[in-house]
Amino acid sequence: MAALDGIDLTLHRGEVLALLGPNGAGKSTALSLLLGLRKPDQGRVELFGRSPDDPAARAMVGATPQDTGFPETLKVGEVIDLVSAHYPNPVPKAELLDRFGLTPLAARQTGGLSGGQKRRLAVALAFAGRPAAVFLDEPTTGLDVEARRMLWAAVDGYVAGGGTVLLTTHYLEEAEALARRIAVIDQGRVVAEGALDDIRGRVSLRRVRFTAAHLPPLDAKALGIERVERAGTEIVLVTARADDTVRALVMSGAPFSDLEVRAATLEEALMSIVRTGRGEAA
User: Fold this and answer.
1) Do both 112 and 155 map to the same domain?
2) What's this model's pTM, rounded to 2 decimal places?
3) Which of 30, 60, 140, 181 could make an SS bond with 132 (beta carbons 3.0 to 4.6 A apart)?
C-alpha cells in the first residue's frame, strides 16, 4: 500500500493549514516529502514551484520534525547561534529566546534541558531564519499548558506577519486555536479539506445535551446514537439524527430540562469522516 496516494495540498500566505488524521495516515510522510527527506515513488513534489532539493526552496522553509537531537555540551544560545549563522537575516537571538520563553535557559547546556524545554528550542529554531513557511510536526508534544500557549502566540505572530504554517497535531484544540483550514488524511489520501466549520458541517452528527436524573429508554440504533456521555445529571447524546432523538426524548415522557442541540466536536467530525472514507458504518 502506498504511504501517500495523490495528495494535492496548496498553502496560502498568512495561514495555518492543519494536517489531521489517525496514526499512520501519512501526515509525517507528507512533511518528509515536502522537505526532501524522502523521495516519491512516482509523481512529483514541488515547494515554492521548485524541487524540495533545490537550495533556494530549502532556504525559504523552517521545520521541526517529531524527533530532534542537540549536542549535549552546547548551550541553548550557542545552538541558536549555530543555526542562525546559516541565514543571511536571522531573527536576533534575544528576540527568538524571548518569543519562546528560552531566555532563562540561554546559558544552559542542552543536555540539562527537560524534554519540554528541548521541544521549545526545536520549535524556536524553525523560525530562526525568517522563513516564508514553517512545517511543524507535532510541535507541542511534551509541553505543559503554559508552554503550549506561548508557542501558539508565537505562531499567531508569525502568521500575522504573512508567514505560512503547515501543522500536524494530535491536540485537536491546537488545530482549532491555530488553523484557518484543515486537511484530513487517512490511508495516504486527503479525505476532506476545508475551513474548520466546513469540516464540522460535513457530518450530520449533533450533540443533544440535557439534564435528567435518568436516561430514558431510547432505541440507540434507530436514532443513530453513537455515544452517550454522562456527568452527574448532565447527559449528552452524540447522534446522527438529532431531530428524531429530541422527538423520542419528548415522547418518552421522562422529565428533563436545559435541552441544547449543538454541532459535533472536531474530534467527532474527524472520526465520522474517516469511517465514511473507509466505507465503515457510522
Assistant:
1) yes
2) 0.74
3) 60
